[in-house]
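Troubleshooting: if your tokenizer reports a length mismatch, compare your output against this known-good record of 247 residues.
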Amino acid sequence: MTDGQELSNGDPAAYQAAEAQSGSHAGRLNRLRAAVLGANDGIVSTAGIVIGVAGATLAPFAILTAGIAGLSAGALSMAVGEYVSVSAQRDTERALLDKERRELAEMPDEELAELAGLYEAKGLDKELALQVANQLHAHDALAAHAETELGIDPENLTSPWAAAASSAVSFTVGSLLPLLAIVLAPISLKISVTVAAVAAALVLTGYLSARAGGTPYLRSILRNVLGGLVAMGVTYGIGRFVGHTLA
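Known-good structure output:
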């Protein structure tokens, strides 16, 4: 979006409705983070492996074997890591919610006063803050405290299985491009074709992440591409050194 252009394009009501339907920004950003991280890791790590092996030998079977091993290990590592991380986060959120339930059951008046104090700290006057707290307590006290005090949505806890599957799939999809590029390219062009394919893929993931997150395109693209090129350059240099020194 260019500077000076209205967010609503002249229709604020439609803009607000679409924003409401899009759901939680935190949830979308978490899904975006996992997908982009998985895809970028797949692209860069697999490209680094196959380029590094190509620096030592251009034997197609050796490159293919290394690429498949890297893809498999990376996808499993991403899935396990994401599952463990999200499970720990989910366990912590559940423990906090359980504690909040006990506090609401054992000291409801104090919890009501606490919630009113939180809204007062956000800028409401004391009387209005108490009215808001009373209404929210009557509707869903746990949800009110979880959102305002803990920053948690009790009905929308992240699934560790979904996060693990998403990371594994995105890593695999990202890994396939450099693997196919280096395997299918002619021997004399394997490295150059792979570098070009990886750079193009990183441009795409950088653009998509910037578009979804509403951030500047160029910065995201440059960050992706430069990081990938540095990784491939380092692993290729190591492969050349090891291949020529130990061969």
